[in-house]
Amino acid sequence: MDKRKVDVAVIGAGTAGMVAYQRARKATDRIVLIEGKQYGTTCARVGCMPSKLLIAAAEVAHQVRGADGFGVLPGEVRVDGTRVMARVRKERDRFVAPVVRSMESLPEAHRLLGHARFVDSHRLVVGDHTEVTADRIIIATGSRPNIPGILKEAKDRLVVNDDVFEWADLPSSVAVFGPGVIGAELGQALARLGVRVRLFGVSGGLAGIQDEKVRDCALRTFSEEFAVSAKAETRRIERARDGVRITWAEGGMEYLDTFDYLLAATGRRPNIDHLDIQNAGLELDDRGMPLFDPYTLRCGESHIFMAGDVNNDRPLLHEAADEGRIAGDNAASWPDVRAGQRKTPLAVVFTDPQIAAVGLNIHQVEERCHTCFAVGEVSFEDQGRSKVIGKNRGLLRVYGEHGSGLFLGAQMFGPAAEHVAHLLAWCVQKRMTVGEMLEMPFYHPVIEEGVRTALKDLSNKLRMGQKPGEGCMDCGPGV
Ligand SMILES: Cc1cc2nc3c(=O)[nH]c(=O)nc-3n(C[C@H](O)[C@H](O)[C@H](O)COP(=O)(O)OP(=O)(O)OC[C@H]3O[C@@H](n4cnc5c(N)ncnc54)[C@H](O)[C@@H]3O)c2cc1C
Ligand SMILES: NC(=O)c1ccc[n+]([C@@H]2O[C@H](COP(=O)([O-])OP(=O)(O)OC[C@H]3O[C@@H](n4cnc5c(N)ncnc54)[C@H](O)[C@@H]3O)[C@@H](O)[C@H]2O)c1
Question: According to the lineage, what is the superkingdom (predicted)?
Fold first, then answer.
């Protein structure tokens, strides 16, 4: 077995691991980045990018189908599943290629392929070929789909997101289990591409939406488009001759249906369990996860750091990159460990309408402010710009603190949420008050005018600023 001694070992060449490597490398050349499977990252290979490519095709189909409402008659819409999937894979490969190239451009001494396991707190065995002794270690091993036992009864018809992007053609029906972020995005996209979809959940949740009013609005909207069983009790899953037969109970009735595939989108589990983490000498919680500080990414008082999806704190791409940076810097400067800057929480779900969350969620607001907060809202049903473009569905709810007027956060289901959410996240991060936000310019006619309406409602409920008069004399029509 080869033996290597390094200052810093990074386990996992995903987004967090690659950024951590880049940062730590500034301080030392005695560094190794270990990858257990293949280069290319979850985001580019099986995550953010291929999912958005599939969604983009679905959006085109949906737009064309809706053209009639504008008096434009494009004719019958046909979806060629093989071409849709070919484009997804071709463009996906274009995103993966530069990531692989940048990995391959690293000095050979800095790269190691093989699954890493802890032998003790400083020693790792990689594959069965190399033993690495490291002064500091960064765990950046990401996560993988979590599949509840009952779903495994679908046998060879059980798929996860990774498999979907390898499909050569679209199937005719899919049962999507898990109405979380992945289930909502892929479920709606497949439905819009002509696949018969039913989305199964257990607790009535949807895409991580915390604000009940927004969640109800989103559930109602999606249920009009495809079958959603948000509170279903799955009784039986069987591999039938023609696919997967599912028996479930809902609203006091029992149902049975057969689908080509069962897509498990039932959450993700951190890749910590195959690391022999018990040998690392870290304090573990009751689920076997090392305790860590989200600001320094350091595990206890140790020389070991955890960044990205593996720590299960903020499993999003931009957070993985930020955490890689913090962990890399701290591994480089250890034992002088510093708190890194954590940004305002921001999450976007690429359904249509999109879903977004910014800053504190409604439960965190209640916990922090008790009764000292107010909620403003706007429905997009009558919002001018949204009506013009035929996207007038959804609800935005904004939260502010009594007394200070501080803008705390927002939850949105509605048009252009990816853009509105950035605007609002920047305001939270800049610690702006609702009054200050209302002093900003708002063009006409734009979706942001709906944001202004929600903020005015909030300002009024906070009893701050001028008492609003009837209507809005200074606004254009349909705000
Ligand atoms: C379908 C889907 C869609 C998504 N869409 C979005 C989106 O639109 N926006 C967004 O912000 N986020 C999205 N995400 C989340 C985003 O992809 C992740 O947050 C991000 O990729 C996590 O990066 P990471 O570096 O932590 O993990 P990864 O990129 O998964 O990297 C971990 C690496 O560690 C390796 N590894 C694991 N164990 C070992 C070991 N023992 N030894 C050596 N190597 C090991 C793995 O092979 C892997 O290469 C999506 C995720 C999915 C699944
Ligand atoms: N747009 C984005 O930013 C984006 C897109 C996709 C994924 N992601 C990231 O990936 C993470 C994982 O996504 P996910 O959708 O797998 O997880 P999730 O935690 O968002 O959702 C999992 C869902 O599965 C449900 N569930 C669990 N067991 C079930 C069962 N037996 N039957 C039916 N439903 C069941 C849960 O109640 C939950 O609603 C997300 O939290 C997010 O961080 C982000």
Answer: Bacteria
